[in-house]
Amino acid sequence: MVVDDHPVVTDGVRLLLRDDPAIRVVGSAADAATAVRLVGRAQPHVVLLDLRLPDAMASEIVAPLREAAPAARILVFTAYRDHAALQATLDAGVDGCLLKDAGATDLVSAVHQAAHGIPIFDPRVGERAAPRMRSRLHDTGLTQREYDVLRHAAAGRTNPEIADQLGLTRHTVTGYLRNAMRKLNARNRIELIAKAAQSGLL
């Protein structure tokens, strides 16, 4: 679902996503009140949420949206990477942040990854969310690279696919996953992903 008060943005998102058969835009809303009502009715997997709406800032409706659709992943979709309200929105616990100049491939990839529970933060704003994630990684002992491999595994990618995505050898990917299993005390890939989710990493 797209929550944005600019029709050109909503129409543009629909246009960029329409060629992916696995993605369907189930609705749109131009204000916070309508968004909460429609999200509760449609139960979307992913919500693209504009930072500023006519009746609320994004940070103010994250909690109502989660109450309306607990399983929905919320991605802030904004043109303002330096807006003062962005930090408050990240602190509200959104699942990612994407800038509106993202290309079609980036947008489609972000929607898919968000739907699989992978946090998505544009590199240009990702450092704002970094302290919280670094704290979680420190608690588990995972390195950043082990975490990168884990995120791709959680999205259902095979080791060869992960290797291609990250520019690693298959042997290295296997090693990172083995390390992650040891650090999270998991016996297999499925248990690893489950424990990572329980730790707030996914």
UniProtKB/TrEMBL annotation:
<feature type="modified residue" description="4-aspartylphosphate">
    <location>
        <position position="50"/>
    </location>
</feature>
<feature type="domain" description="Response regulatory">
    <location>
        <begin position="1"/>
        <end position="115"/>
    </location>
</feature>
<dbReference type="GO" id="GO:0006355">
    <property type="term" value="P:regulation of DNA-templated transcription"/>
</dbReference>
<feature type="domain" description="HTH luxR-type">
    <location>
        <begin position="135"/>
        <end position="200"/>
    </location>
</feature>
<dbReference type="InterPro" id="IPR011006">
    <property type="entry name" value="CheY-like_superfamily"/>
</dbReference>
<dbReference type="Pfam" id="PF00072">
    <property type="entry name" value="Response_reg"/>
</dbReference>
<keyword id="KW-0597">Phosphoprotein</keyword>
<keyword id="KW-0238">DNA-binding</keyword>
<dbReference type="Pfam" id="PF00196">
    <property type="entry name" value="GerE"/>
</dbReference>
<dbReference type="InterPro" id="IPR058245">
    <property type="entry name" value="NreC/VraR/RcsB-like_REC"/>
</dbReference>
<dbReference type="InterPro" id="IPR039420">
    <property type="entry name" value="WalR-like"/>
</dbReference>
<dbReference type="InterPro" id="IPR001789">
    <property type="entry name" value="Sig_transdc_resp-reg_receiver"/>
</dbReference>
<dbReference type="InterPro" id="IPR000792">
    <property type="entry name" value="Tscrpt_reg_LuxR_C"/>
</dbReference>
<dbReference type="GO" id="GO:0000160">
    <property type="term" value="P:phosphorelay signal transduction system"/>
</dbReference>
<protein>
    <submittedName>
        <fullName>Response regulator, two-component system</fullName>
    </submittedName>
</protein>
<dbReference type="GO" id="GO:0003677">
    <property type="term" value="F:DNA binding"/>
</dbReference>
<dbReference type="InterPro" id="IPR016032">
    <property type="entry name" value="Sig_transdc_resp-reg_C-effctor"/>
</dbReference>
